[in-house]
Amino acid sequence: MQIARRAGWLIKTLAIAGSVFAHSAMAQPNYPSRPIQVIVPYAAGGTTDLAGRIVAKALSEQLNQAVVVENKVGAAGSVGVSQAVRSAPDGYTMAVSGVSATLLHQLLGRKLPYDPQADLNSVAYMGSSGMVVITRKDSNFKNLRQVIEHAKTNPGVVTFGSAGNASPGHLATEYIASMAKIKMTHVPYAGDSALMGDLMSGRIDIATVGIASVFSHMSAGSISALGLTSRERLASFPNLPTVAEAGLSGYEADIWNLLVLPKGTPSQIDAKLNATVNQLMADKGVREALLNIGFTARPMSLSEIRDFINVERVKWGAIIRDAKIKID
Question: Would you list the DSSP string of 27-86?
Fold first, then answer.
């Protein structure tokens, strides 16, 4: 009996030691010692995919290890993020998570295969892209102030398009309406490109879309850009004012990306990835590559990322409640 007890004690001790050793091994300074997989939860060629590949390529060069990008599409980003969350917390599988997968889905009450607050380990901020309020080239609206004034005297008459119900463009425009205390009528479409025909023909008055989706139109002057949703003007279009400059002081609504890993990933790996991506965000070549697709690099510490997510959660939660936005 005593021998059996000692044997049992020895087995448990070895198991604990093995677990500690395994956890320690994952956190060793030689990370990464094999290829890293980065899951992009959107289709290849899209803005998030392009931004993810720019960062992944630079990350590979910085870490001297292969970084392989895999597109895993579905459920507005949650399928790919879920796959990363279910992976081993060893720093070798991660995902690019945007505003929808990080918090909007949960705020809208969508059922997810993960808990964004409990399961996502956000270790790096990968830049942001503003959206832009646009109208047709021959519109009577020459600036955003005119849109706001017209909507104040004609509640519900101004129509605005977006890439779908509860999409970032929808929420960004409702944010404008909330701050300006106006009422406009939302017309949802199946993506940014789907609304362009109706905008140019005058069936809708304005739309709020991702910059990347209308970059060529803006460069060619085939549409009129009224306001940028970011807090600062874009170097590519220095004459385009921000929404805040139209009189809505403090307004900011960006499409942003985070690098997320499963909870339980060793803190040393979190710190290393955060420091490495922050170096990349400060690199001139990476900054210019991101800027060419409408993304602005912005280094953030781990604590700044946590604070940023909390602020965004409160802001968008209030907008969703105030505008009574419901999922389809």
Answer: TSTT---S-EEEEE-S-TTSHHHHHHHHHHHHHHHHHTS-EEEEE---GGGHHHHHHHHT
